[in-house]
Amino acid sequence: MKKILVTGSVGQIGSELTLALRKKYGAENVIACGHSKRPSEELLGSGPFEFMEVRKYDEVKSVIEKYDVGVIYHLAALLSAVGESNPQLAWDINVNGLMTVLEIARNYNCSVFTPSSIGAFGPSTPKNGTPQDTIQRPTSMYGITKVSGELLCDYYYSKYKVDTRGLRYPGIISYVSPPGGGTTDYAVDIYYKALENKKYTCFLKSDTKLDMMYMPDALNAAINLMEADPSKLKHRNAFNVTAMNFTPEQVTASIKKRIPEFKIDYSIDPVRQGIADSWPDYMDDSTARKEWGWKPVYNLEKMTDDMLKNLSLKLNIKY
Ligand code: AKB
């Protein structure tokens, strides 16, 4: 079997995706790669790990040749809020890093999965039931890199027949690995703080509605898309996918059903509020459902049950 490479494997999605891929395809067949952050013992202990900088063609090439890689899950990227604090670096990592991976894929005949985001939409996009094919004029640097990435991936497919596939992920929520520098990060922090302090100060307004997804659905979405019959795919980069949408007020109500003393207050961060206001309230993901059978398992209530149960074990806090 040709090997699978995961870039950004130390990040929020990458760390869990690597373990899911190792479980499915065999640990020795999935090579995790990172750059600067120290990998967890679980990641290091469960299969091959390589330090590699995605913007350096020769570094990626030597890993591809060493392991005979045929599939790349390219997750190395900066998220929206941190991207806004260093837009030049966001462009460099998110676009130049992707270009390196696409060139490698072209020269070594690899298929490529890379995530896009709700961030690929902007204020002029229809906000409710955002269609698969619609206006994409994002105003954050993160969004600009995501639209560029979608177009680059489509270009490499149509010009060079590189098998590129992608998803427009919403905010991803998990009790395992923390997100780093996103606008939707509040939806993870709120569960930790609900258990630790019974109180959370939110950086988004109470009625800011955004699409969200629980990690197990996010992992299945990536793997199922990569396994989908290519003849069924009319779209490639990138599919709208969502599992639920909620506001800080609504996730608070869900937590309060299990922890009645939990309280929320608000201290708005204008940068992240501005980004969130430019994103859809909820996307229409019927194209993904039709073309490759996307179907999420978790809604808000099911996710809250699972998050609190697992975080309570992890943090050793009863509720
Ligand atoms: C972020 O908030 O930047 C990400 C995303 C929605 O792409 N979680």
What does this structure look like?
The protein is an alpha/beta fold and 319 residues long. It folds into 2 domains: 3-170 and 215-240, NAD(P)-binding Rossmann-like Domain (Rossmann fold), CATH 3.40.50.720; 172-212 and 243-282 and 295-315, UDP-galactose 4-epimerase, domain 1. The protein contains 12 helices and 16 strands. It has helices at residues 12-25, 41-45, 57-67, 80-85, 87-108, 141-160, 186-196, 215-227, 248-258, 270-277, 286-292, 300-315; strands spanning 3-7, 30-34, 49-51, 69-74, 111-113, 116-117, 128-130, 164-165, 167-169, 171-173, 199-202, 210-214, 239-240, 244-246, 263-266, 282-283. It has a 6-stranded parallel β-sheet, with helices on both faces. Strands 6-9-13 form a 3-stranded parallel β-sheet. Helix 7 (186-196) packs across helix 12. The mean pLDDT is 96. 2-amino-3-ketobutyric acid (AKB) is lined by residues 79-80, 117-119, 142, 169-171, 182-184.
